[in-house]
Amino acid sequence: MRVSIVPTLKVLRPAAMIVLVALIGMVFGYYANAMLFPGTSPAQPINFSHRIHAGDYEIPCLYCHVQARNSTAAGVPSLSKCMGCHAEVATERPQIRELTAYWETGEPLRWVKVHDLPDFVHFTHKRHVAAGIECQTCHGPVETMDVVSREAPLEMGLCLECHRENEVVHGDDCWTCHK
Amino acid sequence: MPNVDRRQFLKLVGAGGVGAGAGFMLAESARHPVEHLIPYPVPPEEYSAGIATWYNSVCGMCPAGCGITVRTREGRPKKIEGNPLHPVNEGRLCALGQAGLQVLYNPDRLTGPLQQLGERGSSGFVDATWRGGLDAAAERIDAARNAGNRVVFLSGGVRGHLAALLETFTRELGSGQFLQYEFAHPHALHAANRRLFGIDRLPYYDIANADYVLSFGADFLNNWLSPVNYSLGFGRSRQEGEHRGRFVQVEARMSLSGAAADEWIPARPGTEGVLALALAQQLVANAYAGDDADAWRAALQDYTPERSADITDVPVETIEHLASALVDAGHALAIGGGSAAAHTNGADTLLAVNALNYLLGNVGRRGGMVFNPDPAIGASDTEPASYRAMEQLAADARAGAISVLVVSNANPLFNLPAAADFAGAIAAIPTVISLSSFMDETTALADLVLPSHTYLESWGDDAPDPGVGFTVGAVSQPVVSPLFDTRATGDIVLELGRRLGLGEAMPWPSFEECVKDGWRQLHAAGGEAAGDFDTFWRDVLRSGVWGTDTRAESGVAVPDEVIADIAVPEPQFAGSESDYPFVLQPYLSTGFYDGRGANLPWMQELPDPMTSVVYGSWLEMNPETARELGLRDGDLARVTSGNGAVEVPVVVYPAIRPDVVAMPIGQGHAGLGRYAENRGANPIELLAPSVDTRSGALATGATRVSVAGTGRRAEAVKIGGESRELGRNIIQRTGTSGSAGHSARLNSIPIVVESS
Questions:
Q1: How far apart are CA B403 and CA B508, in angstroms?
Q2: What's the CA gap between B336 and B280, in Å, rounded?
Q3: Which of B16, B24, B48 sits opposite A71 (nearest CB)?
Q4: CA-based nearest residue to B234, from B380, B335, B351
Q5: What is the pLDDT of residues A97-117, one digit of tens each?
Q6: What is the spatial distance between Cα B42 and Cα B649, in angstroms, rounded to a whole number?
Q7: What is the DSSP string of B479-524?
Q8: Residue A91 touches partner B, C-beta closer than 8 Å
Q9: What's the gap between Cα A102 and its chain centre?
Q10: Is A55 an interface residue toward B (CB < 8 Å)?
Q11: Rounded to two decimals, what is the model's pTM?
Q12: Does the interface ipTM go beyond 0.90?
């Protein structure tokens, strides 16, 4: 006796079509989300422009992100650091007024993190700055950005590629980053 | 292309739409959560994001007073270690000290003042404000003071300027009384030292330089007095001298220290002092050549090895070989405390142990016991309250003599036997105010709760007791800003003082200033050479400790009448031997100490070092006893004393006398938060109100109990699996059998094996 699945398929075809279309829709929806709302340049509480500070005025990165050379975190400047200049400079601009309001109420600014590594990755700025890696290697041309956006994917491939290119000692080992 | 009719088309459009929506939501759910970067408006000095800051402070978990160094990140404490500069612990710290973080971050901490609106002990606590709470407290205290009624401030063990401040506060009130109650305070040791040497300070035991340590019941490697310091000394005695130091432990139930000993001698409970006097008798007969040798000989003539062997259940040969080992050792040291002192003759037992030290010529000497000088800061006249004093307090309360009770950092409801009926006493006190950080059993009965900071959030200072043989002061500084709406105990008292018009005697704006002021005086006493105060203070805060090693050898004399009077009376046990065949020995547990650690999950998870049990309580019992009672490991047994009964699982424990059963203290809380509540049983409840006759301390080992199976099983949770060796050759033995050393056999189970 021969058994054929063709009749069964014929019966199931409409259902299979529905499933197929739903799956295509799902893939489409997933990528539509990623493309329309990439989240790489989130809105910040104050429209701070790196282009003006780091680009036009050529303030070095480490002037504000002081801890990058000796800590795991680069550090975000405190309000007192901002006010060090802006108590005098450009005080009439609306953004600076907003900043001054934060300063006067003593309320901390809640910046939204743009470059975020998962908690299971041990990354330290200190080592990378000491090795002479440019900030822009991972953070992109921040000095040209009015709104900071994440340009590098910040995934494991990026780390490994760079570690291999620079022949980092133990750069391929799992526990170099996952510890 | 198949024909698609209208109906099919609509279906496909619907499916595509639903699929796209699902895909969109899937991407949304896989998105990184938004994280914020929140810089300080004005960063603290020396703060760097991502870089740890270490603060030196003082551990507040037990009365030993070790120095700690706390690693903080972004203003949050992350790890507690020992302060390497502190002479008590030299960088080491015990498990309970490490778990201090879980006191700070405990989810059951009281977050603000509470007022009881319902009946006492009900759940009628409502949030209050500090202003309202302090006003109410001051008002009640003021009314009591004006009526001439007593205001009692009952605190746990405190030292340093907080003790001085509490003393000033209660003294200035006129009708105030300051009591410190510390469950494990060595009252008997104080009494024995006072009587024999006329010295009230605790001695420093120089274990490091001793080459023969004979300990009577003191579990000094686990939690007796200053365990981290003693463990350091023990390690040095074992490993750093020319010879490996020997160590013999005398106790009815093998403690952690007993397990580390070369020889374990299970003397009959309460007769340890007789063994000490038998050894003293041998010393006087064979080796001692002091001027008062005749007096000692006369006093000790009854303590012959034969008679003592009968009393103590220790063979004559053992007594003789111990005595000759003591004579032969270069620096022999006898330590007494813990289970040996927990009887009605506790102080006499320790007196006998001290006499042994005296006859060995090691009092005030290297490798012996060195008496500590008076503390440099916060010298207090208030002796910690013994059980007798607490009974008196309860009796006064019942008689209506006490109007206000302020409880701070003490939990008498848990730490006093049910026989004391402290709950009944509290019921007779019109106003009870608690300053506890947790809703413990005593705080649950308060009318007003003004929660204190934890020790990691407060200022304070300490002179460790027992110290290390020279004056040491240490400053405790906050390592984190207060997490909740709580206040430092000192600040609460200062605030009450201001409201009660005691500002003149207590002029400081904050307790921090009070501590600093005290240290300013200490600094001024140093004269010109000490430099300016600000530098000194910064240095003290940085190092966390202050002091110079001025240990010097000195002798002591014992008055003849004290020698003539020396004797160890028979211990008295509550309950008849026929009704209650076993002596109950409750012991301080490694993780919970006297019960205060039971709300720390790390301590609940910490396996008991001897049985490997985690969580819960258990009853340790000799295998022979278990066989006679028909009980197996994990059977639920009912332990009954004349004062109550508890049900706990049996843990068969070979290293305990057959006539003794033991239970760890610490579990069986009815309060203290989610991790502590309704777990295990509290052996303190069972204890008869017997006291050590000389010191008035609770004789915790003087209660007899009966044990019966309940027919149910409740196996204790053990991480160790099988407790027997089963031929796996895990316990390695050294030396030759027979004559080379001593071997105690207990119920045909070899307990201690000889070393060559």
A1: 27
A2: 14
A3: B48
A4: B335
A5: 999 999 999 899 999 999 988
A6: 57
A7: SS--SSS-B-HHHHHHHHHHHTT-TTTS--SSHHHHHHHHHHHHHH
A8: no
A9: 25
A10: no
A11: 0.86
A12: no
